[in-house]
Amino acid sequence: MQKRGPGQGKPMPILCLHYVLGKKTIISTGSKALQDQLYSRDLPTIIEALDYDGTTALLKGRSNYLCFRTFRSANAQWR
């Protein structure tokens, strides 16, 4: 675990080290904005620099996805 202040680029060295060691890595952020920044800006930089050919995934909490039961219920009310 790294203990550094905000905006110090903690995920970059962690991801690079884990790549070199062949480890799977999970990074948890304090906000969705940081998660999006890491996935759309920082991670592509690391992937290119290390010539990474594996897979990556962006996972968000349940509240960020559509509940089909609620959708069907709301849709039925509007008909």
From TrEMBL:
E.C. number, please?
Answer: 3.6.4.12
Question: Which residue ranges does the record assign to the Helicase ATP-binding domain?
Answer: 1-79
Q: Which UniProt keywords apply?
A: ATP-binding, Helicase, Hydrolase, Nucleotide-binding
Looking up InterPro entries in the UniProt record yields:
Helic_SF1/SF2_ATP-bd_DinG/Rad3, P-loop_NTPase
Q: What GO molecular function terms would the record report?
A: ATP binding; DNA helicase activity; hydrolase activity
Name the enzyme's class: hydrolase
Q: What is this protein called?
A: ATP-dependent helicase
Give the source species: Proteus mirabilis
